[in-house]
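Box S2. Input/output pair 1.
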Amino acid sequence: MSNDLQTIVKESGLEQSKAKFILENFQNYFELADEWAKKAKTIVVTNASQKADMEMARVGRLFLREKRIAVEKSRKELKEQALREGKAIDGIANVLKALMSKIRVGDPLDKNTDLGAINSATQLAKIRELSQSGESEGAQIWSAPCELPSKGFWFAPTVFTGVTQAHRIAREEIFGPVLSVLTFRTPQEAMEKANNTPFGLSAGVWTDKGSRILWASNQLKAGVIWANTFNKFDPASPFGGYKESGWGREGGRHGLAAYIKGAH
């Protein structure tokens, strides 16, 4: 492997095949801004109020219309407290199920629709295949009891519990209305699990402790990190990812860097 190729692999965290593609096609690869597959993560610490958790799910809309938007909360990390009774985990899971039951599935051009159709039969087949793998690997599946249109490609809002890092649905990008719930025992374990992915576009932290937000923001390897909200953007702030979620930044002063040259 050449020195240039080693540099790209080291700096970007990309697979060697993708790094080789960059090297062969782009001379100034660090000036290129791009986004590839993503898998965002949201960390919920159970000392935050249940009302805040519900608002988080509502604001994030869980699936962000038709699931074709790259920034998606396809994983949630829930703190493993009161494990013997399972109250903390079950409580948030029940909140998620209640909110998902209210998601309106239908025509994406209707302003009242929360979740539209899947964009192709091929993508729908992938969503079904990964969901089936989650079941076969032992995760518990729940789907919202909604009526799906007869025409088009549709998949009901679905949540998996009992998910571990070994499950495919925790590692691979599903790009569908499917949510995987993982647990953690300590804040450090949460960071390790959240960063244990080849992607790193966005992350969210939910807690009522400001110090924990600042600590987690320094630990998470993601281009955008939200605190007690999700999917909020400021055009003055740079947007981009880590590792296979892309390189370079768009928006703000950082986003201009790829388009300008300094005067000497």
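Box S3. Input/output pair 2.
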Amino acid sequence: MACSLHSFFSFLQNRIPVAIFYPSYIQAITTRKPGIIALKKCIKEMLRQRGQGPIYVIVDGLDECPNSSGMPSARREVLELIKELVGFKLSNVYLCVASRPEIDIRMVLESLEPVEISLDDEVGQKADIIAYIEYAVRSNSMPDWTEKDQMLVINTLSQKANGM
């Protein structure tokens, strides 16, 4: 979903008039669209508005965001935005980042002194995954599978799920 944040910026870039991001500009009716930089600026300004209640920003699946060698990658841009948001030290903004612990992500997030919750080794998570696998395999979608085949699939997927 973090990649979706980057995609969301791109989506907005093509659909939202400049007026939303620069209300003081008289050229608000123009057909020109804001760039990613303007969209990031808008988010930052919205979060900094005084008198707001709690704001929850959830970035899910940051590891799924492309990490190509391009300059900069979509993942790098999202990580930089996260660093900037944390740097504002806004008491009403709560940031939750869900991701696999890939090295580039860990390096950035650990420098921000987060409260870290790892679900990889949680018994409840593993039990939920196994229950889902059993349900999916035993449902009517696999009517030709023998009990032995079903158990093989359930055991193999359960062992290799690694909390995912």
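Caption for Box S3: The chain has two domains: 2-110, 123-160. Residues 11-31 have pLDDT under 50 and may be disordered.
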